Amino acid sequence: MVGKRIYLDYNATAPLLPAARAAVIDALEAFNPSSVHAEGRAARRIVEDARQAVAALVNGRSEHVVFASGATEAASTLLTPDWTMGRARLRFSRAYVSAADHPSLLSGGRFPAGQVERIGVIRNGLVDLDALERALAVHDKGQGLPLVAVHAANNETGVIQPVEEIGPMVKAVGGVLIVDAVQAAGRIPLDVSASYADFLILSSHKIGGPKGVGAFVGASDLMMPAALVTGGGQEKGHRAGTENVAAIAGFGAAAREAATALDKTAPMRLMRGRIEVAIRQVLPDAVIHAEAAPRLPNTVFFTIPGMKAETAQIAFDLAGIALSAGSACSSGKVGPSHVLQAMGFDDALGALRVSIGPQTQEKEIDAFTAALESIIRRRKSASAAA
């Protein structure tokens, strides 16, 4: 709860955790971590402590963590045709992305548009594994290797993708697998060493850290993408520019909290169930998207029949409840959900996303239910008077 308002939009940004806020404030006066004097070494310790915390969140190694300005930059760094393995150059000729992926993956990063192929999803939002397998089977490795990018969990529906099945397909053809774990971190277990992923992408502000910092974590550092931001030797040459010590410190603190938050997913799952029961009671004909698919324990994505999602979102906002109409990945976005379209739904009305976190309280779910009932009651009254 934020003041007297109720915040149910954790997938957009999780509230800043007290531990993360304290870490940011403590590190605000840190010096340049590249300096060799005592002040610089103290700043470097802050960065490296955070690097260890971020690595631990995904059972990775700290030396395989590269900090960036956020998940979008991390994705743009990894989605490139140009890679190195030791001193040898590697060339990737095509990027395969899920049609329901976050826009940072859908864009294909630094791949030319003609070298980005979208793989469809089935009705429940899961990647069409047969379509991916067919695409990889006909990939011309004479032109270069395949690169596959997919989200671990969808930011709108919460659908958890079968990475453990996608990974072997990619490895069988010598490809690289990039997994956007932004929404999954702190909500489902992640293990970069056992997921078949070559790299995971993480974002600080999705787990209660400050905005403006993210990372990619490799299963190893043998194979690396060509740097996107060049000019200095920071981050072992993989991302130039003086590190944002304060933001990185907050990211590290949030990562430590997220690692323990996995023990709190059961209450979130119960609250998600309460939300869905309430929706069904108030709106028996509501569509809860991907209801039967494996989903994050905190996310509900639903359509109110006959009511535009933006209209309902405004009504909830006026009632003091913050939630989303789709995702919040672009400023002021009002338009169709590419996720629903990829799933084969008519998106004329859109959908509302309720996303909760470990701090969400039962009374906030009660308030959401009461607001939904009020909105639907007013809507029925207006229709009867028309």
Architecture overview:
The protein has 386 residues and is an alpha/beta fold. Strand 6, helix 6 and strand 7 form a beta-alpha-beta unit. Strands 2, 3, 4, 5, 6, 7, 8, 9 and 10 form a nine-stranded mixed beta sheet that branches. It contains eleven helices and 15 strands. Helix 2 packs parallel to helix 7 and helix 5 runs parallel beside helix 6. It is globular and about 75 Å long.
Summary of the model, kept short:
The chain contains 11 helices and 15 strands. The chain is an alpha/beta fold and about 375 residues long. Strands 2, 3, 4, 5, 6, 7, 8, 9 and 10 form a 9-stranded mixed sheet that branches. A 4-stranded antiparallel sheet has the order 11-12-15-14, covered by helices on one side. It has a two-stranded parallel sheet with strand order 1-13.
Summary keywords:
386 residues, alpha/beta, 4-stranded antiparallel sheet, 15 strands, 17% strand
Number of helices: 11
Which of globular, elongated, flat, extended, rod-shaped describes the shape? globular
* Beta-strand proportion: 15-25%
> Any idea what the radius of gyration is?
21 Å
Order of helices and strands: EHHEHEEHEHEHEEEEHHEEHEEHEH
What is the mean pLDDT?
94
Query: Helical proportion?
Result: 25-40%
Uncertain runs: none
The count of strands amounts to 15
- For the record, give the distance between the C-alpha atoms at the N and C termini, rounded to a whole number: 37 Å
**How would you classify the helix and strand content by structural class?**
alpha/beta
Reported for the largest beta sheet, the result is: 9 strands, mixed
